[in-house]
């Protein structure tokens, strides 16, 4: 007889990295004083791993909106949206998001992960779901929930995507899934190539805009607006945990599609509704995003500075103005050692190893935000310079 718990054993490498003192995960933050800093174990570090790109999680207007909603409506929703958890606040947020994104309808979910899981309602075992090799785990899990098979095309490779579309059963529905800005690298999807192939093969396009809404495009509507191809995207998902500075997510698209998902997407139907404080915070954040475009301009300028300086040092960084700056390392243990060197230097980054990235492509992800000061950006670059030389990366 096999014990179902027998699989619950961490690999030996876990113990090794713990013993070496380079384990980078589950570091508890004691305080968030703001201004791009965190306190961990009594030490103040530059927060260079957060996806709070616009610095809105600590913005007084966003915080006060959440507090006021908690006082008026409580801290929880008390049920799913379908049953008894819907609030006028949810509907106001959906209406405002639909107007902002220029989409016919929006469905707000309790988390960004759930927004993408809800896409399972659009998929079935006979459908051809074709996704970029680097799409987020929640898009992969959506296909599993639907019982669909996900075929992966090489990252931003339209020729490979075309071959997969041509190989699909002509009787099957076709759905192309991609991220707008990829979370691991900051690269943008090849939406022009995707749009052309989608038209030629009668495929629908879903874009996960978790990391680009609020940042890209003249109006902050994301990668599709940046490319001038908003109409090429049939369904757009987003999370409030990045540029909006809170928790929650949303699916935006045609009215009939959103109405269908409201009733048939299991992650929507069977999950408690977004809490009042988070819904109010998202509404307040949306107002700031709309009224203060200079915030995203500041983020892009800071990202261009950091990525350019790291590239000039000799790191294999692609210089650009995307707030996600990927510093390739390759080896997992070397990645952990670099993370530890940066941590000791007072810079808190994110170490990414498989399955978050492909095998052999471990990297340090730096996230630049509107909250970072010039001095903090200098500290990030200087910490990489010192650590890179010490570890022989430069």
- Strand residue percentage: 15-25%
Estimate nothing, just give the exact number of structural domains: 2
Order of helices and strands: HEEEHHEHEHEHEHEHEEHHHHEHEEEH
Termini separation (Å)?
Answer: 53 Å
Report the strand count: 14
SS field, number of helical segments? 14
Neighbour order of strands in the largest sheet: 4-10-9-8-7-5-6
Roughly how many Å is the radius of gyration?
21 Å
The CATH class label of the largest domain is: Alpha Beta
Question: In the CATH hierarchy, what is the architecture of the largest domain at level 2?
Answer: 3-Layer(aba) Sandwich
What's the overall geometry?
A: globular
Roughly how much helix do the residues carry, as a percent range?
Answer: 40-55%
Structural class: alpha/beta
Major β-sheet annotation? 7 strands, mixed
Structural commentary:
- The protein folds into two domains: 11-47 and 293-390, Aspartate Aminotransferase, domain 1 (Alpha-Beta Complex); 60-291, Aspartate Aminotransferase, domain 2 (3-Layer(aba) Sandwich).
- 40% of the residues lie in helices and 17% in strands.
- The chain is an alpha/beta fold.
- Helix 6 runs parallel beside helix 7 (191-201).
- It has helices spanning 12-20, 60-73, 88-101, 112-117, 137-146, 158-167, 191-201, 223-227, 255-264, 266-269, 276-291, 294-313, 332-344, 374-390; strands at residues 31-34, 37-40, 43-47, 105-109, 128-132, 149-153, 174-179, 204-208, 235-239, 249-253, 324-330, 347-348, 350-352, 362-367.
- Keywords: Aminotransferase, Pyridoxal phosphate, Transferase.
